User: Fold these one by one.
Assistant:
Number 1:
Amino acid sequence: ELLSSFLEECGGERSQSQNFRCQVVQRPGGRFDTAFFSAENKRFKSMTDVARFLNLAKAPKKGLANISKKGRGSKDVQERRLKRELEKLKKSKLKATKALEDHDNNVNPTDQLLVDQESFWDDGSNAAKAHKEGRVLPRANIECFPGIPTYCIPDLLLVWDFFCTFCRVLSLEPIELDDFAAALSFQVSAKDRNSQTVGELDLNPPSFIPVYLSECHIALLRLLIKDATSDLWWWSILETPEMVEQEDEYLVDRKRRPVTAVVKIDMESLLAVDEDPLVTTKWLQALEDVRTRKPDSSGPIKSAVKNAIAVTTNQHVKSYLKKAMRSWKAKSAGVVKRAVVWLIDRMKEARPDLWGRKVSTDEIAQQKKLVADEAALEMENIIEEVNDDNDGDMNLEEDSDDESDSDDDDGSDNEDEFADQSQQPPSPGKLRSSVAVNENDETTPVTTFVPVKPVPSVVDLLLPPGKPVLPTDLVSALSWPSVIGATSCRVFQWYKRRRNEVDDSIREFRELKPMSVAERRRREECASSRILSECGDITDPGYNHIESAIKHLCDGNDYLDLTAVQRLGILRMLIETAYDTHHIQLSIEDNFKARANAVKALDAEERRAKKTAKEELAAMESAARERLAAEGRDAFIATKREELIEDIKASQEYSVEFIESLNDEDIIDLDDDTKAEYEALPTADSFNKAEVNAVVKKIQEETAFGAESLTVLTLDEIEKRDEE
């Protein structure tokens, strides 16, 4: 019927529709499709296709409607695209205009400064001419701190940084760099010196010294004296070549320098004696105590030698030890120690079986022969003085208790030590050696790395025999300059010895000839620049700031007579020594440990914060899913309740109050369909990530506002609520 009416509207007849049949098909989505078939079973999708097939005059032409629609759509899309492009161009123009205005308003401060200060350049000087010609001016050598030369600025910064870094270890209060430089360069004016009498200045010479300089020197002095490392260098000015075997705790891992023979002995006969291995091991262990003793510990060395003589049954060993004891003196047992250590080393080489090694008899005999031949070559270079054998017995029979007690003291008197050395007659061999050295120092090799001992100063003679023990009156505000001078002298002598050891070790490692005496003397003259190698000790020709400052203080002169460079050099020397102390090293280790612990704590805190944030986010997501599920259930119950109310209103079976009084479980259990629909509601795990994130954001907003629930309203909703 519809097809007949449509054909009449298109100019056809109703009878034309009789040759067509209609077929309606329902698609899976619920939509119905209508198709028309002709007598020839040709399919048409719509009545318009049937009218066009019959060539009716008023039938719509194919594609006109769609074309006009597409044309209108494409035109609208093009207009919108052009509008967006126009808006982008307008925004770009605004940005460019703003950038141009900012560039015009913000002039470069440097260019402005040059323009403003152009008048200062035109003063007729060479700098002004160079500036006008466009040449680069050299950097001027400006003294940044009055009284401190420019080349001393690195040393100044190093010293000031040390006091600021280790202020807790030194118990110092850090000060500004300008104040520290002013204290270093402080000089007493002539007016202040003339304001007091000479006697008053002599009674209190450090009265004008800046307080911070006094505190720095006293703190460094206390740090150095109370540290165990000061035992290594406090007696360095009294060291002799016979004391070169003194233990150095910094070099225990280094290969020990081989000891040369000092006493003649027939090593082949000594090794040929058949002695019980247990007895040999016992007297060698007794002599091992000598290796760890200092050369001035004459009492313990003598006791160890006596014990070894009493234990051994080898007459050659007894004779050798008695000959070595001839040179024994109170506070001077260096030769005895060298002889004992040489014997121990040779015995260890010749008898490896005594120390747990499995060696055949032939190998032992071969090793004994090798050691005996080497010892015979060494014996040829020894010139032994002929003395009565009773001298050694006399030294052994004397009671060593007094010497042992005296060894417990901190040291011996410097004046007696130098007096003994001046009265001791030299041997003919030593005289010949000294003459040879004087004749040709350029070719004579050095025999020891111990530098020449300095002449005892006034302060050395006034100091007590031993190292000052804290607390002491020597380290005070009145006496510290003299003690600082004595300490710097000892430190300087110790570092010269250490540098000499390094030189000899390097030449030995590279298999070079030993250094000559003249070369060693030239190296010791520039020892200050080698010790302070970080910035260097800039010295004038023939003048050394550090050595002159040490001599000035050791002579008991006033500290304020030193220049700023000399004061800085003294502080550099003490700081170099302080870096080797256990207290500073422990402080550095503690700082590294504290930094490492802080980094670990920060990492742990970051991990904890990430873990907490992750747990909070997981809890929020779980709460969001539960909220979505609860909202779905509440919406379902509310919908069912409204449906029941509508049904009751129509049937009048129950009252509305009765339906509203029903709880959620009653509504769910009302019938099987409702219960099935309720069970089919989405659970907490069935929601997608987008829905959960939206609810999480809402929960975060509620938490930020401190509310249990947050409702977002539009302006129209707010106005509507206000009207209500």
Number 2:
Amino acid sequence: VLVADTVFDAVNRLSMVSSSDHLNYIMAAIAALGEAGEWESCIYYMKNSDEAVKIGQPLVAAVMEACLVCKKPDEALKLYEEIRLSVETTVGREWQTGGRFDDILPSVRSTALRAALFASAHSSGKSDVLINHFKDVVDSQIPLKLSTIENIVYNCEQDGNVFGAIHVVESMIDGELNILINDSDDYVGSDVLPDNFFLENPSFSKILSSSVRTCNSAKEYGISLLMWITLCISSSTEGLNNQLRLDSHHPSNDYLKMVLERAISMESDELLDALIVSIYGFAGETGDEPLQHVHKKVINTLETLFFEANSSEKTAWVSTARHLAQSHKRSWNFQDRENSDFINERASSGESEKNSILQDSVMHEILKLSYLMNVDNHLVMTSDISKMMRLCVAASQPNVGLHLARRIAEVCAWNDTGFQFVQPSKRDDEHAKFSESPYLVSTDDIAAATIAALRATGRHMDAVDLYLEKFQAAKNEHGGTSTLQYEDISQWILSPHECMITLIDLGDFEGAETIFDVMNMNIRTPVTYSILTGGYANSGNWAKVLSTWERAVANRSLSENLCLDTLQALANGMQTPEDISLFITVAKALENLIGLKKGEWIKKYYSFIKEKIDDSKIMQRVHYKDWELTLLMERFEEKKR
């Protein structure tokens, strides 16, 4: 403080000579103190001087800068938080912020972003805070250098922050950024930048490469490909609608050509390498079609691009892409996979073809929705969104479906046309991490698909909160003017089913029963009861299986799974004649349900009986003596014929 007193005494003496330069003298003094390592003195002056009230936020920016010079980014960020959280702060007066009482000056926001970038670069786990400050700057339309954006994405890569990196890139693609040109004071919105600006700027290739590697490291290959599809569609939509219609039977090839052609045009082997990893990873990690089939598609696509190349430079880059693809074929060890018994077994069973169809379906739905979102968002149907999310879960890439659904919700702005949003769980401090976009839960099928996707990512409680918050919100507005009334949501069946499954996964059977009880009896289906019996059977609670059977019989809601669970429960607890009689009754109900003759259920469910009910005493007591021998003899005779 003594050093600061001396400096500011000098400021006062200089101000007597030239009072008009008083502000400049103070700013120069703050800068000098920062260079001298006196950041604490700067903060003390800002918080205790009467001059601070008059100067306002420009002084805060100068003090934050002094903290940065002294390598104290956390102290600078504390000052920013004081401004953001309190409208009563001595540095937030209406007169110096254009009449907007709670505004923060661009210089303060920019300095806070630099402080967050400094902190993230020197300490892991702080990229979420960095992204929050990036959002503040973008929302305030403050211009950014491409080099700054590159550093932000790189810090996300070091932290493994997939959605932070993707958010930055999508902000560029969506035209939300003002980008400084050639480090000058001139800037232009990223929505009006010509393609060649990015193509000719190495920083953009590095930004994309870093974001793709971030996704690959987290095995979020689908998120990487979704980003690329969005980039391709946003940069050129001419003819794409016709392409989707004409080639709807081979969407996988379409997406490969579009993605690879765009990547090749960037002329970056680093980017090509990362993107090819995403393509192979999407197929291999999810267990979709065997990797050698994906490799063949990539090579065929590159051969097409080679013949279509109109310059020697493009031909050379296609050749580079082919070399990288061949290299990754060796690194993924395709040959061993081809020769494995597992792959041969899958191929003979037709599973390979099924997985190929699944992958094609996922990419086609993503391609279609991405196109409609960017070009004709009024054509996006809720059924398409839920279908896409379900397919992504089936392909073991649930985050892709969640992310695309959030983007559709934001871009299409359906909250103005009768659709509703529910905020994510508030259990985390919203300022401590990068907050997610609202989940789209406007209809039963979308809500159910969202819950299933969240459960697949391991976020069970978020999935449960999503349904409970939605249900409670509709119940609270019962009789009001909300677009979704309690009477509507009380008729939902898919989302409460998904919520019950999620609670059972957590071992919370009481919670699942609560959801069951809240459901209207008239809308309960056989699936509703089989969800409960399946959970109880897996946990070995045979008494609960039997009591649920009784409720299902009373509501005439029997199903195949329900009957099998009940047979297993009886086999594990059969002691009385009544139990034997019930076993026979359930077996008859199963036969009637699926159209079998008497005793045929044994043949159809042979594997189930061997695994779950195989006890000769039980089968004999229910008058199925020598059932296995009889069955084996029948099969032997069938083979002879």
Number 3:
Amino acid sequence: MGVSSPAFIAFNFVPEAVVELEAGTGKIIEVNETFEKELAPFKRVEGLSLVNDLVQHADRPRVVKTMADVMEGTVEAPEPEGEGGLGENENPWGVVKEKSTNHAVNTLVMGLECQYPIYRSYDWVFVKNGERLYGFGRLITPMTTARHSAERELMDFFDNAPIAMHWLGGTGTVLWANKREMNLLGYSPEEYIGKPIMNFCPDDEKLVLKIFHQLGTGNTISDVPVRFRTKDGRLKHLLIDSNVNWNADGSFHHTRCFIRDDTGRQIREAQMAMAKEKEERAHKQKEALLRKLLHEIKTPCNEINLSADMLTSNGQDVELSARATKLLRASSMRLSDVLHDVADVVMFQAGSVPKLPASPFVLKPLLQQVVDHLMEAYTKKHIPVHVMSNLDNKTVVGNARCIERVVRHLTKNSLSAIKEGSIILRAMLMPGTKDQILIAVRDTAGGVDVDEMHKLMANPWKDTDNKMDADGLGLGLHICNTITQVLGSELKVESAKGVSTFSFQVTMPVSDTPPPAPEPAPAANAKDSPGVSRNQSLDIHVSSSGTESESDSAYQPAYMSALGSQTFVDSSSTSGESETEQESMEVGLACELKLHALVVEDNIISQMCVNKALEDMGMIADGAENGQEALDKLNAHPGGYDVIIMDLRMPVMDGLTCTGHIRKDMKLTTPIIAFTAEYSMEIKEQCFELGMNGFLSKPVNKDEMRGAIEKVLNRKLKAK
């Protein structure tokens, strides 16, 4: 109750609900304690119109007329005696004429708590005291136990409903709101009920008025988004469903509003929008990558075509033929590098971790060969690249393939970006250690944005046109970063005063013992690093010692023990057979016998190339264009083939299915070498589980093919 005047305090002692009204407007100014207990707390009705907000529409005309009559002096009340207000024994009902009484007026009752409002019948008497108008209300609705119980049940249903609800009067005032709405917005009933709804709605008033207009024309609104300001000042997104409770004469009574918190939907939609934007950005990045990938593939293909034309039209010109052969090999290696870079990134993105067996090699010559190879492609740059190392000819134990790839990508990036200055490739044994080697590529290309470099390391699809990989796909930094992590290291970037340095520190034991001598390679492969196969992606194990890695033995299923002494071999572990292993191979007259190979390959050109390579090794090659044709030939001549070269993807019957029939149904132990463009570890494992003995990942050269065949047959082949 507000601060009452001394005269009004006396009304706290009468049993009726008493309300003081503003003359002319009928707005509530004060109420007594009985009014607060029976109808509503003063704070919830202060400033409301008794007639327009609390009296039911049908009863309003007669109440308004009575109040007007009283104010005009038709009915008068006696003046209170003394300063204390009414006399101690005076009853205001006894001095008021019958004309001032309105019987059975349906009046809105809200209660002390945040309760669902209901109508009860009151007799209202209005009297004038000077310029003041007073209303005296006496409850006449019989409040039986059953009625109390029914009202409490109805109130509980709405007050404790799991959805927020409120009533709005015709003037936009909140007449009632349930507990769910109070909790949602954080207000107490005194702070919320009885206040204009615009006090809590920060949206444009025109929007709110538009909603009221829609409701006023008889429409029901659904899922209308609005914003409400909570008590702590936050804006909460809500959805409103509402319609109007109409009076019997069709006039507006109050709204019925149901509110749902829309914050979650707003967040989800924002997240979806962000995800869509991210997806579109990624799509554009991958589209740009695809365009560049096609360029990087088509360019060497064009070089191969032109080189082949050179060989065809100038076969008698030895110098020109040698040049064309060199171009063919360089273009083939470039194409292979592109494909394996993409294959490795896909593998990294799938969460696969390549297995990296360690073997001894000499580091400094490997680095020099990387530089020599790159300089052939950048001859017009005239940029000096210096290889510096304190390791000299010492042997290190590690994965040469990984070191070669990281150094090649980093050096290539520097060569692509630099216009003048120099590049230094440094490999240093850290002072006081025997196995900590720092490898760094330093250039004077003008420096780099370190933050941008870290983004490129993390996201291989970002900015594929970045200048650091202008001559490639833009995947180099990501590949380098991932490989160094697999090696247990970290790729670091430093840039200052136009000088940038990419470096990593790797653990590789150092010794003076020379590595095992590699198998002599033909002159055409002189540019390749000893024991390192440049055209293999990381999921194909590379070993310069020629021994099998531990993971290879895991591929051999139990039933394959019946196949005798045949070995499971990876094409990349055949590049460096030791002399002891070579001597263990069968020699003598057996080598002079023609070995028969079955080449199962659906691509006729590829089949012809393989057949020719096998013939150069002194073998007889037979062809099959799919798995079913291969089975037919094997059924016709069960023991007619010494080795099977098996493609995987073919029409009619694929290579995996064919291998299953050969091993399980035909019980043949003929060595089978997978020959495929597939690269994933999953496919490789599947091949060995089915009983294959070797794995060749296209593209391969003749020496790699010879090595794989020699391994599974345990004998040397003719070299040509």
